[in-house]
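Batch job 17 of 40 flagged for manual review because the log was empty.
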Amino acid sequence: MTKALSTGSKIKVLALDLEGTLIASAHNLTPRPGLYEFLEWCKPRFKRIVIYTCVDENRFRVIADRLVKNELVPHWFKNISYIEWDGMIKDLCNIDGITPRQAILVDDAEIFISDSQKSQWIEIKKFEFPYPADDSELLRVADIIERDYL
């Protein structure tokens, strides 16, 4: 479920989940189809792109480096900002320099989304086995971003 933000809101930050959203998991780095192109599409449209994941930062940096080396993501991905958090909710208040209404979060797990921030959440279907090559979720998300948030 995606709700458009009120008119006049300026989205500055795109927050992205990792596991089940961009790749299969921290243990299986199979990228979602269209990942490289999606990230390149997003880059000029947002002031910042950040990772908001349950995977600890050290492990994420290893994953990001491997994805870059295998040319599965753009080179800038290995230096992407990482959002620290604890608890169960990915609170957009944890992103420095913005108000929550200035960010959107792409995530496959509603359980991590605050009820008060669901208007900034774009739900994506979990990317899981058998990892369909014709998965078009990132294209669908880009369409939602273009239509409802930019």
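Reviewer: the log was empty due to a logging misconfiguration, but the result itself is present. The longest strand covers residues 103-107. Unflagging and moving on to job 18.
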